[in-house]
Amino acid sequence: MNRKKAIITLVVTLAIAWGSLGAMLLAGWAPKLGLDLQGGFAVVLVGPEGTDPDTLDTAVEIMRRRIEGLGSVQEPEISVQGERSIVVQLPGVDDRERALQAVGTTGQMSFRPVYAIAQTSPALTDPDADHPENLDPVTGLSDPDDVNAESAYLAADDGFGVYIVGPAFLTGVDMKGGRAQFSGTGGTGAAGAWVVVPEFTDDGGEKFRAATGELATYPIGSPQRQLAIVVDGVVSSAPVVASEVDPNEGLDPNQVVITIGSSDSPQADAEDLAAILNSGALPTTFERERVESVSASLGSDSLRAGLIAGLMGLALVAVYMIIYYRVLGVIAVIGLTVFGSLLVGTIILLGETQGTTLTLAGVTGVVVSIGITLDSFIVYFERIKEEYHEGRPLRPAIDHAFPGAFSTNLKGDTVTFLAAVLLWLLAIGPVKGFALTLGIATVVDLIVSYYFTRPSTWLVGHSPLGDSGWFSVRGAMGKGTRATKSPETVEVSS
Q1: pTM tops 0.90
Q2: Superfamily covering domain 3-30+298-476
């Protein structure tokens, strides 16, 4: 290594480490905090008996897509627990009830013909009449799961009235997704209302044309011209097939909108319904077993106490390193700031791009990684001592010590990295946060060792601080017995 190369390497490394972190902070970026640090809630959902693992895995992915559609939730932690339970941890949730609906709503959608509309369930007013099977004895409503039932009693979304509907024309499998939008005056939906525009498959579009064509054959004003849009057994809306619809053609599926009824938050309801259409229905119905609120105060207190203890520990370590290793200790202290900048910057970047959150377990991984990095400095410095005490001049000792020290650190970091990868792949919950930060830290440690420790030590060793004074590199080598290498004697025989 020469002086020019060492200076360029050092300047570039410091610019990337400190400059990138500073830019992120100036841009308002910060680590995204997990459930234990910023609070939120956790919900346990339980599926029916005999739920198979594939069904649970599918449900987890659907829930994850729905939560991501909310936008405000940072990296939800959704995992299978036991044989039929799913644990959902949602940090930083502003609208708790909306998030619960997103993960707990089955999302089974169907389009059904309307036979009649009643003020209350006919099953309650006339129990002896011929009613559909599977009626709830309290509500008088039908089991909504049977989309092929000849008739069913379903409640309206606003809670007023009961729709008597027939077997489904279409189900969720006939739709590809949907989008929420505001329909102003002159739009396809109700003026000034939030609506959801569903997107049908090709086969679903044909089914919709046939269904609306059939409904168009009924007289104007008849409830049988209505098409009930049912979500999880509740009639979300029941639009009327307009008089101008040709029974032979039906209604264009591209003109369909689902109008959000009376609601305190119609925009959120429309977006949630669109998210359900885009993510698909859950493969089975889940019951909410319990909901637990998680306060950020405990995690914040623990983090604050940990930071205070960590800073005190770092201060003591810095003092010890400077006293023992003199100017090399200063290099180690500065190197720790470089390491910390790169590590924190990486965590922030992952949070902004991948939604990765920092948890208490992740903070623990950061603390452990500081020890790993300090150990890398010590391995190199002690290797220089060994080379020097074996009789090698100081500057060659600095050069000769690095390959062996780096090789040792590489082996140690490789083992740690592999352990972190295994923890990430096999563990669940907080352990993943620990594994993530630990794995990142081992990579950053090698970068700092090669691109900071090596050039900075070389430059100091080849400066006046290398040879003269108590604070110098030579002063840090100690007063141990220094071997002197004598020239080899070659015996020549005549």
Answers
A1: no
A2: Multidrug efflux transporter AcrB transmembrane domain (1.20.1640.10)
